[in-house]
Amino acid sequence: MLGEDAGRLPVFVYGTLRPGLRNHDRLLRGRTVAERPARMRDAVLYEGPGYPFAVAERGGEVHGELIAVAPRWYRPVLAALDELEGYRPGDPRNLYERVEREVLVEGAGTVRAWVYLAAEATALRLRASGTRVVGGDWTG
């Protein structure tokens, strides 16, 4: 169960929310129904202060996992992820924006998912002076 379920999109994660890392253990463990390796095209990763930022960029690729949240946990988990990422809809101070993107899931094709991309001001700063994660895999 990795696709859209009753309007609930899975979440593509590429940093501390990946399985085995601190925020996955804290916010997602025991609340998912599927976790599969996946890739997001047309994005690159930059180092952050202990976590990465995905920035939209043609030709790039980011590696991570597609997480399908259990239906009973969907709303509280999405709210917790928004809080973790400092995302508030429409707030110009956001570091991240939660957006819908297509991701490629190993053995399952393309799936629409939520992903936290660097907000425009953050992306501009990173493009100008950030450190890029070579290969697009923050854990590799």
Main features:
3 helices, 41% strand, Hypothetical upf0131 protein ytfp, alpha+beta, 5 strands
Write structural notes for this entry.
The chain is of the alpha+beta class and 140 residues long. It has one domain: Hypothetical upf0131 protein ytfp, CATH 3.10.490. The chain contains three helices and five strands. Strands 1-3-2-4-5 form a five-stranded antiparallel β-sheet. Strand 4 and strand 5 form a beta hairpin. The longest helix is centred in the middle third of the chain and has 11 residues, at 74-84. The protein starts with 10 loop residues before the first strand and ends in an 11-residue tail after the last helix. The relative contact order is 0.25. InterPro entries: AIG2-like_dom (IPR009288), GGCT-like (IPR013024), GGCT-like_sf (IPR036568). This is Gamma-glutamylcyclotransferase AIG2-like domain-containing protein. Pfam families: GGACT.
List the helices and strands and how they pair.
Elements: E1 11-13, H1 22-27, E2 32-47, E3 52-69, H2 74-84, E4 96-105, E5 109-118, H3 120-129
Antiparallel strand pairs: 1-3, 2-3, 2-4, 4-5
Pfam family, one: GGACT
InterPro entries: AIG2-like_dom, GGCT-like, GGCT-like_sf
Domain Gamma-glutamylcyclotransferase AIG2-like: 11-139
